[in-house]
Amino acid sequence: MMLDTTRQNQQRNPFAGHSAIWLFGYGSLIWKADFPYIERRPAHIHGWVRRFWQGSHDHRGTPEAPGRVVTLVRRPGVACHGMAYRIAPEVLTPLDVREKNGYLREVTRLHFDDAAGESAEGLVYLAGADNAAFLGEAPLDAIAEQIATAHGPSGPNSDYLLNLAAALHELGVEDDHVFALAGRLTGEAR
Ligand code: SIN
User: Which ligand 1 atom minimizes the distance to the CA of 164?
Assistant: First the structure.
């Protein structure tokens, strides 16, 4: 099963006419910023948690053996920390292709971690529970096992998880879900 949300995302232009757009990254967009950006700042958004509940059939797995990557799941009262990038609007074109397996551009309020009280409206790529590549909740051991074995055109699924865990450590972000999974792969119990 291969999804492609590229065309849908191109219709989603809430910031049309803006010369620069804030984009919140919470997964690979934190540690794999291989796109041009004007500036980046650590930030968080309210009401969401990061979960390895999204299938990856195109980057970290295959249609036959999907990997698992992160999406956001609603959780009132908690914050999800990541990285905000200010980008030129045309940078969304390649990002729509990168995020095409079920992610949709959604508007969110970003709160910057380097300046208390400062916030901005921006975009986030969100893969909702209703997208065809959504895998949903599973026991942590099962998720870790799937990540340990999956491999796709962008490389091993384990690289995605371990790079994300390292980037969150570096940002000083505590994420029990990500660190527990990473610990299962590296043998460090958590
Ligand atoms: C993101 O990083 O913000 C979206 C999910 C991903 O590309 O890993």
Answer: 8
**Tokens coding 177:** 């879900």
Question: Is 99 a catalytic site residue?
Answer: yes
Domain 6-186: CATH class, spelled out:
alpha beta
Average confidence (pLDDT) over 172-185: 97
Is the distance from CB of 124 to CB of 106 less than 8 angstroms? yes
Atom number, ligand 1, closest to the C-alpha of residue 160: 8
User: Is 28 a residue whose pLDDT tops 90?
Assistant: yes
Choosing from 125, 134, 154 the residue with most ligand 1 atoms within 8 A of its CB, the one to mutate for a pocket test is: 125
Q: Where are the domains of the chain?
A: 6-186
In one-letter notation, the amino acid at residue 162 is L
Instruction: Give me 42's structure tokens.
Output: 């650590």
Strands 155-156 and 104-112: unpaired
| Choice from 70, 73, 171 to test ligand 1 binding pocket (greatest atom count within 8 A of CB) | 70
Distance 28 CA to ligand 1 centre (A): 5
Which atom of ligand 1 is least distant from the CA of 69? 8
- Cβ atoms of 30 and 83 within 8 Å: the answer is yes
CA distance 120 to 21: 10
Instruction: Read off the pLDDT of residues 45-67 as tens digits, 9 standing for 90 and up.
Output: 999 999 999 999 999 999 999 99
pTM of the model: 0.96
